[in-house]
Write a structure and sequence with these properties.
Blueprint: H1 5-19, E1 27-29, E2 35-36, E3 43-49, E4 52-63, E5 69-76, H2 86-90, E6 102-105, E7 109-114, E8 120-125, E9 130-135, E10 138-143, E11 150-151, H3 157-162, H4 179-194, E12 204-206, E13 209-211, E14 220-226, E15 231-234, E16 258-260, E17 282-287, E18 290-296, E19 302-310, E20 313-320, E21 325-330, H5 335-346, E22 359-361, H6 369-381, E23 388-391, H7 412-420, E24 425-429, E25 434-435, H8 441-449, E26 464-466, E27 469-472, H9 480-488, E28 507-511, H10 538-559, E29 569-571, E30 583-585, H11 593-608, E31 614-615, E32 617-618, H12 627-637, E33 643-645, H13 663-676, H14 678-691, E34 696-697, H15 699-702, E35 716-718, E36 723-725, E37 735-740, E38 745-748, E39 753-756, E40 762-767, E41 775-778, E42 781-785, E43 801-806, E44 813-819, E45 833-840, E46 849-855, H16 856-859, H17 878-882, E47 887-894, E48 902-905, E49 912-916, E50 927-928, E51 931-940, E52 945-950
Parallel strand pairs: 22-23, 22-33, 23-24, 24-28, 28-29, 29-30, 30-31, 32-33, 43-47
Antiparallel strand pairs: 1-3, 2-3, 3-4, 4-5, 5-21, 6-7, 7-8, 8-9, 9-10, 10-14, 11-14, 12-13, 14-20, 15-17, 16-19, 17-18, 18-21, 19-20, 25-27, 26-27, 34-35, 35-36, 36-41, 37-40, 38-39, 38-41, 39-50, 42-43, 44-45, 45-46, 46-52, 47-51, 48-52, 49-51
Helix pairs in contact: 6-7, 8-9, 9-10, 12-13
Bound molecules: 1-deoxynojirimycin.
Organism: Grifola frondosa
GO biological process, one term: N-glycan processing
Pfam families: Gal_mutarotas_2 (PF13802), Glyco_hydro_31_2nd (PF01055), Glyco_hydro_31_3rd (PF21365)
Length: 951
């Protein structure tokens, strides 16, 4: 991989540090300057670098109310201003700093002690500057512990030329007291620290491209180490393992650092640190007794080296092209705490519209309205559920998005109405490159408003090449673009403004190419010296660019109706904060088994980084998957939060109804399985939207103390449901080994076979023929499903529920179910159903069981829905009332010790039931579970009830 010059400089600095035993960071805090800031909550201090004693830096350290530490450093009175707005785009709000911290300023350091047990300590050491977070006296996170901090200050070519040429490099540091010595030694020391060459300081070429770098060197390097934490996760997007392999040090797995620079990469590698379409600079460091994290709010290209000096400790080195230092330390100490801390900063994932969790059928391209209609017809003829049909770029005349190609789509609104007739939706692509032509009102308006990205001269609109041919790009950093962009999505005329009248409120949006992709630009993107609003260069804001576009599109979709409805916008490019609005997918994957497998890991990494609504192209974007591969790919997609099939324009049609038997029926079965499990997905999304806990949970999240689970990234849990899945991503598989982390029973979802994780941490062999997916229910879970096949998910609204009560080895179980109208924001006014389902023995030794349903929202009104506390929640809310008649039609109890003597709703008559004697959850063997099937207990899903299973 080609490393950028600033990355080479940062890595060379690190190599010099490694080679020099006396290496010491030149950055020190001027202890006399340490002061409480006027806001009375943060500490500020002047920082000096002995390399450039005339350059001033300012440090700002604060501790937020939730214990997160924010460390900022910027150059003061420099000849230019460093980009300092990344956090303002990523953060939800300005976080509140805590007033409850016990700060002490001493001669050598500044200390803060906090936490409910006063067990957390932050130490800012002055000479050299180092920031350490400790818990119970143990180091957790250390900034600049290895002295790799370097903020290249702004300088001019002339000033550099005037300074003396480098001298011999001394072994040790130098003394600034002797003014005569300073000049000489400072020069040698500069070389010792910064290196002797001006590698790419003023200009850099990338194939035929020259980056003019008018600001000169301005990169930022910092080491962030995690003593006592042997595993690292996060920093998507990379096609790699979840447990990040090393890039430096002995036996480094990769030779290049992880790169974050949003890019449209053609045929990306399935095992690489190369940058892909999105970047979320958040990392978890994990060990059996602690999880901590960092979020580095930087928007420029960033490279991250990872090394593991010992199995119990990890080092990272972050090298960014520009920007201020703005690092948030997430103190944990559990994975759930880190999720809460990170999403407290950047927001929790939005609760999607319910239909968006159904199956999406896409292809580049459905070529006409009649094509769309016939695809819909074929799905219906084959009884395959689907919620959304997608249109790629060929719907748009000359790739002028919003403008229908009337030759092929003569009746777009009627076509959409035909899709809506079965309660389905359309998603239509809108890319950010605007065709530069006078007959395109969208481009014309953007140009007239002056909201297009500028060339490096800062005056003329930048022109590049994309699908549309010659194009310009709206600059969404410019607030003047916001209302204009939103107005485009109105489905009714508002004033003289051009709006998308040929769409309906069921037309949702796909934002692609928003890295941005520019076919004739460097690395298929925009020149870095392009100018955005505020005079910032593109290099400063690059990784945020895509997020602004899709987040704004989401807001446009929310706002186009009154009352507002939840949006659906799929984005290819993303950043920290994208989770507040939309969904993402892993871009142009290949139709290979390797890509299928790494897609699972990439979706998990996104979940770790706060962005749960993620998936990969089912089938693989490129290529023509054989039927076996396609079936397996549906098995992967059905267990991803976002489930969409997509294919390149040159591929053969591969809609699932085109498959021969038995493949067609297998895919139909998988689609129906997904639909039956929508209550589980939706309930998991509710939790994510409130707590920040991810929808997909790898082992280290679900079982943070179980070391053997830390590297596992091919099986995972869905929310808190207790479902454990291991999608098959290899050819010719007939069985799979599944890791069970605990001494507990796990039931095969389909065969009801009991597996046991005893002794804790055991691999079990689960059947995985082509018609099977390893899917286990953790003992102790209650799984709500809806099992009536329907054409689309809204048609399931009043369908009855099945409950699978999977008893744990002690004979109990618990589950949750969340429902609301699935498309508006009335849930925030308390229009919800949030139930707690439980199964308990009335007494410890009893063989009887009480299965109950209770109103969880009544118990936890402040935790029911995202963003608001339901102060006036009522179980008889309008939505709940509309669901009164929705009943539980079947309850399956797995693992009962013996055949019951009676089963009845408390106080009611005997119910109809059947019992198959298998083995009990409390037995020690493996085999088919005992199963009690209660038929139609006639209890409502919204009311409290108790069913007594008497022994
Ligand atoms: C690139 C996207 O990644 C792909 O999904 C899409 O089909 C093409 N652009 C055409 O719009």
């Amino acid at each position: 991989m080609l490393q950028a010059a600033f990355c080479r400089r940062g890595r060379a600095l690190s190599a010099r540090a490694n080679d020099s035993p006396s290496w010491r960071s030149p950055y020190t805090v001027d202890s006399s300057s340490v002061a409480l800031a006027p806001d009375q909550v943060s500490f500020t201090a002047a920082v000096i670098s002995s390399i450039y004693p005339d350059i001033k830096f300012a440090l700002d350290v604060r501790v937020h109310e939730d214990g997160v530490v924010r460390v900022r450093m910027d150059e003061v009175d420099g000849i230019r201003k460093r980009y300092n707005e990344a956090a303002s785009w990523a953060l939800l709000d300005e976080p509140k700093a805590s007033r409850d911290i016990q700060w002490t300023v001493r001669k050598k350091d500044l200390r803060a002690v906090y936490g409910s047990m006063k067990d957390v300590e932050l130490v800012v050491s002055f000479d050299p500057l180092k920031v350490t977070l400790l818990r119970n006296g143990k180091e957790q996170v250390v900034l600049n512990g290895r002295g790799l901090l370097h903020m290249e200050h702004f300088r001019t070519k002339e000033s550099v030329a005037q300074s003396k040429p480098p001298m011999d490099i001394p072994e040790e540091g130098f003394d600034v007291d002797d003014s005569n010595q300073v000049v000489m030694q400072a020069n040698s020391r500069t070389a010792w620290f910064e290196g002797e060459t001006e590698d790419g300081w003023w200009e850099e070429t990338f194939s035929s491209w020259t980056d003019s770098k008018p600001k000169g060197p301005e990169s930022l390097s910092i080491d962030i180490d995690f003593p006592n934490h042997g595993h690292l996760y996060g920093i998507p997007q990379h096609a790699t393992r979840l447990d990040l392999p090393t890039t430096t040090g002995e036996n480094a797995y990769y030779s290049d650092p992880y790169r974050l620079y949003n890019a449209d990469v053609f045929e990306y590698l399935a095992d690489s640190t190369m940058s892909l379409y999105g970047s979320i600079p958040v990392l978890h460091a994990h060990s059996a007794d602690s999880t901590v994290g960092v979020f580095d709010a930087v928007a420029s290209e960033t490279w991250i080296d990872v090394s593991r000096p010992a199995s119990t400790s990890t080092h990272t080195h972050w090298i960014s092209e520009s920007g201020i230092l703005d690092v948030f330390i997430l103190p944990g100490p559990t994975p759930s705490d880190v999720f809460a801390q990170y999403t407290g900063l950047t927001g929790t994932p939005a609760l999607p519209a319910h239909w968006a969790l159904g199956y999406h059928q896409c292809r580049w391209n459905y070529v006409s309205s009649d094509d769309v209609r016939s695809v819909q017809k074929r799905f219906d003829e084959e009884d395959m559920p689907v919620d959304v049909f997608w249109l790629d770029i060929e719907y748009a005349e000359d790739h002028k998005y919003f403008v229908w190609d009337k030759k092929n789509f003569p009746d777009p609104v009627d076509m959409t109405h035909d899709v809506e007739a079965l309660a389905r939706k359309m998603v239509v692509i809108v890319d950010p490159h605007l065709k530069r032509t006078s007959d395109y009102p969208v481009y014309q308006q953007a140009m007239e408003l002056g909201v297009l990205v500028k060339q490096k001269d800062g005056n003329n609109d930048y022109e590049g090449w994309c699908w549309s041919g010659s194009a310009s790009w709206p600059d969404f950093f410019n607030p003047a673009s916001w209302d204009w962009w939103k107005s485009l999505f109105k489905t009714e005329q508002h004033g003289s403004q051009w709006s998308w009248l040929e769409s309906t409120v069921n037309t949702f949006i796909w934002n692609d190419m928003n890295e941005p992709a520019v076919f004739n630009g460097p690395e298929i993107s925009m020149p870095r010296d392009n100018i955005h609003y505020g005079g910032w260069e593109h290099r400063d804001v690059h990784n945020i660019n895509g997020m602004l576009f899709s987040n704004l599109t989401s807001q446009a979709v929310i706002d186009r109706t009154d009352p507002p409805r939840r949006p659906f916008v799929l984005t290819r490019s993303f950043y920290a904060g994208s989770q507040r609005f939309g969904a993402m997918w892993t871009g142009d994957n290949l139709g290979t088994w390797e890509h299928m497998a790494v897609g699972v890991k990439m979706v998990l990494a996104n979940n770790i980084a706060g962005f749960s609504f993620a998936g990969s192209d089912v089938g693989g974007f490129f290529g023509n998957p054989e039927p076996e591969m396609l079936v397996r790919w549906y098995g992967v997609g059905a267990f991803a939060p976002f489930f969409r099939a997509h294919a390149h324009i040159d591929t053969k049609r591969r809609e699932p109804y085109l498959l021969d038997e038995p493949y067609k029926s297998l895919v139909r079965g998988i689609l129906r399985l997904r639909y039956s499990m929508l209550p589980i997905w939706y309930t998991a999304f509710r939790e994510a939207s409130v707590t920040g806990l991810p929808v997909l949970r790898p082992h280290y999240v679900a079982f943070p103390h179980d070391e053997a689970g830390f590297p596992i990234d091919d099986q995972y849990f869905i929310g808190s449901s207790g479902l454990l899945v291991k999608p098959v991503t290899n050819k010719d598989v007939t069985e799979m080994s599944v890791y069970l982390p605990e001494d507990q029973v796990y039931y095969d979802y389909f065969s009801e076979h009991v597996y046991r994780g005893a002794p804790a941490g055991k691999e079990v062999t689960v059947p995985a023929e082509l018609h099977q997916i390893p899917l286990l229910i953790r003992g102790g879970s209650i799984i709500p499903t809806r099992e009536r096949p329907r054409r689309s998910s809204p048609l399931m609204k009043h369908d009855p529920f099945t409950l699978r009560v999977a008893l744990d080895k002690d004979g109990g179980a618990r589950g949750e179910l969340y429902l609301d109208d699935g498309e508006t924001y009335f849930h925030r006014e308390g229009n919800i159903v949030w139930r707690e389902l439980s199964a308990e023995k009335p007494a410890k030794k009893s063989k009887s069981l009480r299965i109950s349903s209770r109103d969880l929202a009544l118990q936890k009104p402040t935790q029911a829905v995202e963003g608001v506390a339901l102060s006036k929640y009522s179980g008889a809310n309008e939505f709940a009332r509309s669901m009164e008649k929705v009943r539980v039609e079947k309850i399956i109890v797995l693992g009962l010790p013996a055949k019951p003597t009676s089963v009845r709703v408390e106080g009611g008559k005997e119910l109809e039931w059947e019992f198959n004697q298998g083995i009990a959850s409390s037995d020690k063997q493996e085999g088919t579970a005992s199963a009690l099937v209660i038929k139609d207990p006639r209890v409502s899903i919204v009311s409290d009830w108790d069913i007594i299973v008497a022994a």
